Amino acid sequence: MTDFIRPEFTPDFLTTYLGYHLQFFRSGRAKISFQITPHKKVEFYADCPKRDRQGLLRQKKRSGAALPKHFDLIATLLRDVPDAKVFRLHAKGNNNATADNAHLLVSLEQATLWLVMSEVTHQWELTPLLAQVLLEGKGKRLGEASIFNEYMPTYEHDWQDAEFGLEDYTVGSRLLAGAPVLPALTAVPKRPPAVRRVYRQEDEIDDYDDPFFFTDPPHDDDDEDALFVSPPPMTAQHTRKNETSTPYNKERLWEQVQAGR
Asked: Which of 110, 135, 153, 235 has the fewest CB atoms found within 10 Å of its own CB?
């Protein structure tokens, strides 16, 4: 059957990639990401079944005739490293899209990983703790960062058999050497206190959607539509001279001045 022979792992496709990322997670999964362009990649996950050898036999039964050299490489590795576990590779997002022409093997005794792609074998040196965590697979499947993440560009191997040591890694294992594996964080982090807002003049923005701008102005006495009422006519103020009963106003005063002439 050719349905399980993934073209992404054939020599014609491998030589077109810029390189690939290899990642491990506490859940016991590995991830291989082929870099097609700087912004495009194709991804595969690797899981270790509980009965890994039986799963390998099923794959060989359906695809062994088409992939004799690939399965011979796997058989040789298992003979030389009997404690190795065989991981099944499948396309990201589709567990049924198995790749019979690609396998990943991990040995705790040798602290080594082998990635076999068709007839190409890449050997990765691991730390014993990293190999143990990968094989135990006790972490969560979601929400955890990788414990190993390295990129190997094509010019480092040209898709030929290659070996990579700890000195070749940019970061390597992200687990502390000799330290116990810490459990996943389960406590919900506390929410930080709210920051007190400081008023600033520049923060004021005229929001013309505010209902304030659509209400009538308050009542004003200077309304142009109000009925104008004339004030009462002014009358002269009558005064009286001290100690007299003669009223003093403008007309009377003028008469007295004329009479005295």
From this structure: 235
